[in-house]
Amino acid sequence: MARIVTVTLNPAIDKTIRLPRFTPGRVNRITDVRSDPGGKGINVARALKQWGEKPLALGWVGGHLGKALIEELDHWGIDHRFVAVEGEPRTNLKIMEQETGRVTDVNEPGFQVQDQHMKSLLETYEAALAEAEVVVLAGSLPPGVPSDFYGTLILRAKQRRTHVFLDADGVPLKEGIKRFPHVIKPNLAELEQVLGRRLPEEDDRIKAGVDLCREGIGLVTLSLGEEGAWFFAGERGIRAIPPAISVASPVGAGDTMVAALAMGKVRGWSLEETARFSVAAGSATASKAGTQLGTWEEAQSLSERVQLSSC
Ligand SMILES: Nc1ncnc2c1ncn2[C@@H]1O[C@H](COP(=O)(O)OP(=O)(O)O)[C@@H](O)[C@H]1O
Ligand SMILES: O=P(O)(O)OC[C@H]1O[C@](O)(COP(=O)(O)O)[C@@H](O)[C@@H]1O
Fold first, then answer.
1. Ligand 1 close to Cβ of residue 282 (< 6 A)
2. 3-state class of 215 per DSSP?
3. In the record, which residues are listed under signal peptide (predicted)?
4. I need a surface site. Which of 134, 137, 173, 268 has the fewest CB within 10 A?
């Protein structure tokens, strides 16, 4: 079976705290707290698994928290081949303010990675590519990993004719784009940072997306939070707007969208079908607390009300 392989180099435990309002410099008392396994590629694998795919999750992991994370993957029935490192996965704090709905992410850098861990990861990755139709590279790089590491993984996937997705930010995204992955999914802030300019108007966003496609990226999905997303492929651009939802926590919405893009690729969906489902799936996740991901049924029911238009 052609598979979707996900790579999570910097896994995390997401600790979501809720409080009426966060006041820096003061004692803040929280209403409730929850912990979920996180890290972008792991979230992508979780979404795919609950939608009926058979993803294979790769990455680095270590320590007691890492063992618990792997046990969660086993519990969900997700196949995995993680390379062991020393040190614990990071805990990423998500501060959710009930009065404003604002979420602040405070993400740790992650464990230190050594040369031998990179070598083992590359071996595991090469072996997994042999059975992959799509590979999803997602999330930040932990300390010790060169900023062009995704570039290396992209080149190796392309040599094997595997469709490669990149969802990262900052320098790793900028470096990765130079190797022309087939798909990228920046949000607006991430794309603005990579391009070094603001994209305030729709026309600015259209030009940026179309230019990246002309440079050699197959599908550019520019996600816009509650405003939905743009999907650029070749000379085409589709704007998708989700229906209004009651937001609980948008953490994981972008990862759910990436999972939907990967699923659309392996299932041969049209650009319209992919746009509709991936925006709906992201919104379904945003309607759930902590890093809980939208189910197939929740995404399907929202997808009927996603509005599509073209440029
Ligand atoms: N507050 C929200 N309300 C409705 N849908 C949302 C909300 N936040 C995210 N989404 C959905 O999830 C998708 C990805 O979210 P976004 O926040 O843009 O990505 P990221 O998590 O990568 O920053 C959006 O395109 C949208 O469909
Ligand atoms: O690797 P990074 O960039 O620090 O991001 C990791 C964080 O992003 C998440 O994967 C959520 O990402 P999205 O909200 O973009 O879907 C969390 O689970 C995790 O804490």
1. yes
2. helix
3. none
4. 268
Helix (H) or strand (E) holding 84: strand 79-84
Mean pLDDT computed over 108-124: 98
Residue 147: closest CA among 127, 118, 124: 118
Q: How many CB atoms lie within 10 A of CB 102?
A: 11
pLDDT in tens, 257-288: 999 999 999 999 999 999 999 999 999 999 99
The label of the residue with tokens 């992209």 reads: 154
Q: Whose CA is nearest to atom 1 of ligand 1?
A: 226
Look at ligand 2, atom 12, and give the residue with the nearest C-alpha. 252
Q: Which of 8, 10, 34, 43 to mutate to test the pocket of ligand 2 (most atoms within 8 A of CB)?
A: 43
DSSP for 114-172 reads -HHHHHHHHHHHHHHHTTEEEEEEESPPPTTS-TTHHHHHHHHHHHTT-EEEEE--HHH
- How many Å apart are CA 192 and CA 107, to the nearest integer? 20
Task: Check if 291 has its Cβ closer than 6 Å to any atom of ligand 1.
Answer: no
Instruction: Enumerate domains of the chain plus CATH numbers.
Output: 3-310 (3.40.1190.20)
Q: How many C-beta atoms lie closer than 10 Å to residue 26's C-beta?
A: 7
Q: Give the number of other CB atoms < 10 A from CB of residue 163.
A: 21
Q: State the average pLDDT over residues 205-222.
A: 98
Per-residue pLDDT, averaged over 20-45, amounts to 96
How far is residue 239's CA from residue 309's CA, in Å, rounded to a whole number? 5
255 is catalytic: yes
CA distances to 23, 125, 262 from 94, rounded to whole Å, are 14, 30, 26
Quick one: which ligand is closest to 184's CA?
Answer: 1
